[in-house]
Structure formats: C-alpha cells, structure tokens
Amino acid sequence: MDSDSSMNEGKERLRLLMRQKMNSSDDVLTGMVMGDFSRIESGARNLAFLSLQSEWAAVDTPEYMSFSQSFRSTAEEIADHANAKNMMSVEDAYARMTRSCLDCHAYLRQQGLNDLPGATASIDVDRSWRLADATSMWSAQDENGVASP
Length: 149
Fold this sequence. Notes:
Elements: H1 3-34, H2 37-50, H3 62-83, H4 87-110, H5 129-139
Helix pairs in contact: 1-2, 2-3, 3-4
C-alpha cells in the first residue's frame, strides 16, 4: 500500500471516529435535556472509550495529548456525575468538555491541519434519529404540559 493510500485510509478512520464522537456527544446532550442519566452515562463512557482509540491521535504533540487527556477525564467525570444523578455537575462538566473540543479543533486549524476530519466543518453526521427522540420527548408531557423523560 502506498503512503497516499495509507494516509487516506487513516483520515477515513479518523472521520468515522469523529462521527462516533459527535453521535455520543449528542447522546449526552439528549440525555441532559430529557433527564435520562443512563443515556448521559453511556454516551460519556463511549466518548472516553473513543478517545483511547489509536485513530484519535490525529497529531503527536504535547498540546494535542493534553487536549485529549482533558477531554477523556472530563468525559469520565460526566459519566460519574450521571451515575450519581447529579445533573448540575453533569452540565458543568459537559460545558467544560465542549470548550475542550472547541479549543482542540482551533489548535488543529492553527497548526495548519485543516484537512483533518473535524478540524473544519467537514464531518457528515447522521442526525435523522433525533427527530424521533424529539417527537417522543415532546409527546411525553406531564399534566402541566412540561416535557418529561
């Protein structure tokens, strides 16, 4: 296999991993909106797992490794808070994790790595499942018309 083919294969694996990351992040956010601690915990644990995959290491720099470690530890923190059913702490950690993602992607762009999946808005995420989630969320309302999980 030539180096161009190998590089393209690596980028495709990273693109798939970034899609999985976005879907798991969506699970955490949907769980937060619906008060579904099990969904939050599952999504967060999956995020931490994904960050350990070899494809995750887009670049080998101390800065990138620091971003990855911060992301992973915050994802684990979210899962632990969800397990303890502490929504305020989940929300705080989710905001920090999101900031970590944004900072890392900005770093990748600053390094001139715009062609990496996720460094720009090139990730094609299938969001069709969310319509069903949103419909079921709004149909599950209490007597005051407030959505309930």
